[in-house]
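Table S2 (continued). Query chain:
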Amino acid sequence: MAIVTLVLWVITAGAGVSLLSTGGAARRLAARAAREPDAPVPTPQTAGASAGPARSAGALPSGLAARLGAPPRTPDGKPPPVPRVKVATPPGEHPLLEFSHPALAVTGLACWMMFVFVHYRPLAWISFGILVVTLGLGLTWLSRNAKDARRHTSAAWRFPPRLVAAHGTAAALSIALTVLTALTASRG
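Corresponding output:
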């Protein structure tokens, strides 16, 4: 049963990767359309054509000496002051959720793989705990994304509903099989 659960976790991860790639592509396309409403959509044939004129390898722009990789210096010969940038998350973006849900899913999958290979019972419960936290983060991400989509935030992910349903169903089955397998392993 542990191997069946492992296969189901891999299927869930595959659905999640597919969900991220299609949702991210739709998000980037919508953000570009919002920025540039009249811009032509690039095709693979025309994407590399506008790279600009090629510069010969030996030609250096005027005023550039032997310090190619170094930062420019002030007239005093000192490095320039480092700008302090304040990072703010735009509306509709949730970088912590976008990182932690997949990262925890991979961590839980790794713990479950270790359980399958060595049958160390605490690993089953550890992976179950990681899976529950991952589920909570995924549901939070989904609800925040739905709220951002209702507000018409351009940065909102656009997930295909069928993939969301497939990923959610596989995740629910993964949790059920994980609990059954962990309970079975605890009795043995």
